[in-house]
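Support reply, case 0932

Customer input (verbatim):
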Amino acid sequence: MKQAKTAAVAMPKKKIRPLRAFARDWQLWVMILPAIVYIAIFCYGPMYGLQLAFRDYDFSKGITGGDWAGFKYFIQYFESPMFWPTIRNTFTIAFFSLICGFPIPIILALAINSIKNQAWKRTVQTVVYLPYFISTVVLVAMLQILLSPSTGLFARLIVATGIIPADANLLGDPWAFVPVYVVSGIWQSAGWNSIIFIAALAGVDGQLYDACKVDGANRWQQMWHVELPAILPTIIILLIMNMGGILNVGFEKTFLMQNALNKGVSEVITTYVYNVGLKSTQFSFGSAVGLFNTIVNFTFLVLANQISKRAANISLM
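Our regenerated output:
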């Protein structure tokens, strides 16, 4: 008997061949096929053009026909007078968007989860989700109407409270660009971003709430000791993913809100790439700036992932 048990334990596990595994789970592969095709075409396909950052682009020779330039355009960007302004502006907008915008969906999800009346709960969820479906163009148009110095309703209300001076221009003053960008972004996306936290809260075991009530915990204590620990892994994973796109400040919204008065604080890396790379037809220089932006984002993603893995044993992989 001992020999039989030893032989059974020592026998290696039978490996599943890839083709056999594919034949077994072909329905799952078919289901994710559109996502694979999308990523291959729109994420990996454009990487072929990254060589533009290292070549002198020539219209007549195509992407691969230009002379090799090495790190010429990277050095040109580092020595450019727009290097530090674009880095500063991008980091400022991204930092305040992350610090102010990331906790709001969590708080909103906890508040919605605490509503006991299901009809009222669904109504609140619908109301907070709706702004997400407003396009960026429409959102900026709404900001221009509501924050107009002469006729804007919100601008007049804020002036009446004494928060800003009467001659302030929320659409043109440099100091107002970041607050308007961040607050409008929170209003538009907080409800949608709270969905994943609401879903995580739905999976909390009801016995934990019962145990807290038996111990005399109030609603705030239940939230702190039951709900927050339950969604902590989700919070950390989403924070890591947000860190990976810290310099990807939305081009459309920034570009539409940009004007001659606030360009000193609204010129971020993405708009600079557009203005220099496309409008000025400096394709190699624009590619180099965009690649630098991607490398910095990837570095932040790896660092955040490693810190989370060491501190909380939670990571993307």
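We compared this against your earlier run and they match. Two observations from our side: DSSP finds 17 helices and two strands in the chain. Residues 115 and 121 are 6 Å apart (CA to CA). Please reopen the case if you see a mismatch on your end.
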